[in-house]
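A quick aside before the break. I want you to see a complete sequence-to-structure record at least once, exactly as it would be stored in a machine-readable document. Don't worry about memorizing anything.
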Amino acid sequence: MKKINQLIIALGSIFSLSILFPVPTQAVCPICTFAVGAGLGISRWLGIDDAITGLWIGALATSSGMWFGDWLKSKKVGSNILLTINYFSFHILLIPTLYLLKIAGNPFNTLWGVDKIILGIIFGSVAFFLSVVTDRTIKKNNNGKVLVYYQKVILPMFYLSILSFIFHLITN
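That is the input. The structure line, written in tokens, reads:
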């Protein structure tokens, strides 16, 4: 019961801060990135399998890389090569850090012969990227308009939730 109360307080605080300090929506907005990070922290705190946690870590790294890339574009900094390097640098810096912190690398914590967190990062990164592609495709085919409000938030959460459920079935 104590964990649930703490979770309610944390989510209430996040919601309150987002109302008090709104930010303009961007291609992959900081609020979405923060939501993915919060999902990651909560999943680890609740003891959810590392493969599922890895999905959210991968989505967070992808979201952060895309958000920072959009920021670089808005400042007219860099070329496509620099933006690609930026995107992968979030992942390249993340994975060794997970090994150094001993979050990844346990030989008994694998799925299909791959560390569960690393496997989750790969699947989560691809899922988040595909959700962005799906959003852009829907807008392109709908005269630049979304089909539903908050589509940009709903699609990544939907993709990640479906993958989380599939990994839950596989790991249990």
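Two observations worth writing down. The chain has one domain: 2-171. The radius of gyration is 17 Å. We'll return to this after the break.
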